[in-house]
Structure formats: structure tokens, C-alpha cells
Amino acid sequence: MRVLVAVASRHGGTREIGSVIAAALADAGHDVDELDPADVALIDPYDAVVLGSAVYNGRWLPEARELAERAATPLSHRPVWLFSSGLATQPASMANSPTEMRDLRERVAARAHRSFAGRLDRSVLSFAERTIIAAARGREGDHRDLVAVRAWGESIAQELGAEVAAHASF
What we know:
Blueprint: E1 2-8, H1 13-27, E2 31-35, E3 48-56, E4 59-60, H2 62-70, H3 72-76, E5 80-85, H4 98-108, E6 112-116, E7 119-120, H5 127-135, E8 141-142, H6 146-168
Parallel strand pairs: 1-2, 1-3, 3-5, 5-6
Antiparallel strand pairs: 3-4, 7-8
């Protein structure tokens, strides 16, 4: 299957999560394109999509939200998985707006949404971001569990592989 992995990332940590997922899919034999959401012109060439975003102030980054909005109909007609990467000290599920994620999952008919802890490097943050992180008591360091990320990517690959096999038997 041809799979799009589109990830919105401000400082690269969430993009790296997307790359681990893309590698798991590619290793399972899928044809994978990794793109920034703003660079996705069409969903039509893809059989499946993994869409992810860093979470800031309880929301996905605008470019990921915009892709989901403008491509909601084509996304809802193919397998879609969503993921979020939030504050380094907690999984993004604690940072995401529950209403926003529920609405997004319904709009694109996503099969699942997975939250991952992130990476915090204060040296790359703006003054405003450092202020927000200080208020949230963000803990410096890389708290991503890339083994769990890889396992999730492999589970998506297995699910897609089972669909390919089911269609081949017809």
C-alpha cells in the first residue's frame, strides 16, 4: 500500500516520531511518503494516512488541523491513524483538548489516536514557549518511547497487510 505519514512539528521531535512510524511501515513493504502537512496537495494517491502533530496549548499545530479540515472527505474514505506528541513530562493525551481530538477522529473516521510523550530542549524554544513550559513545569530531556512508537507503527503495518491479503483473496 502507498501510505502518507504527514507530521506537524515545531522543533523536530514529533517529526522524528513520524519517521520511526514511517520506517516501520516501509520495513513491512509499504511505499511511504513523509511530508509536512502543508506540503500535502492531494490525499487521493494514498491508500492510507498517518497524521500527527505536536501539541501546544492543548491543540494540534495549525498546519495539521488545516490538512485534516481540507482533506476530511478523502481521509474518511481510507484507513487513517492519528498521533499526538505533547509535553515531555506527560503523554499528549493529557495536553490535548478532548473535544478537539474527538471531533477530529470523527471527521476523518480515524481508526485510532495515539498519544506519545515528547522531547523538551529549552535551548530551541522562544521566550514565550519557555514561559509556557515553565508554567507547565515541563521537564527537560527526551521522554519519547521510540520502542513503543515503532511497535505502534508495526501494528499499523500489520493491519494494512491484513487488508491487502484480504483483498488479494477476492
